[in-house]
Sequence to fold (338 residues):
Amino acid sequence: MGTRDLTRGLPRDAAEQVCAYLSTLDDALPLPRAERARILAEAADALGCEIEAGIAAGKTARATAHEAVKAFGAPDMLAAQFAEAMAPGMARRTGAALMVTGPLVGLAWVTAVGEGHGWARISSVLTMVPYLPLVLAATVVCAMVAVMAGRPPARSVWGIRWAAGAAWVAAIGCVAADAILLTIGMQQIHLGVAGAGAAALSLLRLAGAATAGYRLSRLRAAAR
Amino acid sequence: MRAEALKGHLDGLLLAILEAGPAHGYAVIESLRAASGGTFDLPTGTVYPALRRLEGDGLVASEWEEPARERRRRVYRLTAKGVKTLAAQRESWHEFAGAVSAVMAGERTWAPAT
Fold:
């Protein structure tokens, strides 16, 4: 929905100012499209109500729109506040998703390329690339920190940037781990169905982790 | 009172406003303005990120108002967790405000250790 649709019913003088404000706010918000649409719809409603009240009180549409927009707050400041409000939840969800998908993807790769039985089979995958265990360990630790630091009691102690930062590192670690596993998989062309399944799972997770990492980096940049 | 002074208290104030019943964002802004007698001079848009934070913490729930109006609006309500949190914040605030008032008014009931 465009900002023009959000100002339907407002006098033209007021609608133009509100449209311009909502466009600036839209550009400043470091959030996915659906979240931005929700925020803009709510902002448009609040500004519309304020303008209608001003007009009812005898002010001109232009003057009341100017006051309403000014009173609502600077777009950059609001974008920073939304980023701070939403970063802990995103950090929590990212950390939890990585912790849940980690064992699944790991099991798929152990089944596809592992050699031997039990722990030896797991170990054979981990030792295929020297630094893979280190990347996985750092990813798991950061994902756990993201989940814990994103919760309300810990948030006040650790701060929002800690939660978002840990989740970002976990997402990047996950992208790196999946890229390593996919490279190993591509070197073994006789993988069959198990290998194709593991590669598909890794690709899906890599895409999800990369998207989460990108969003978290934008939220961290916007949060002051 | 400027926004900086309200930092840390806005969440509790919003929970208290919603205690009266579900309300959309603009109604929350109006109630805050009316209940404070216009004392809280914060940008009105600040209320929305705070509501999102409360929603993320499970203290508030929201849904789009039905039937759809010309402009869409979202209605917020307290959750059971929000009610509990408000009660705890209220108790903590009364304790803090009482102690500050007593000290400011020179009514200290305790004696410093010598």
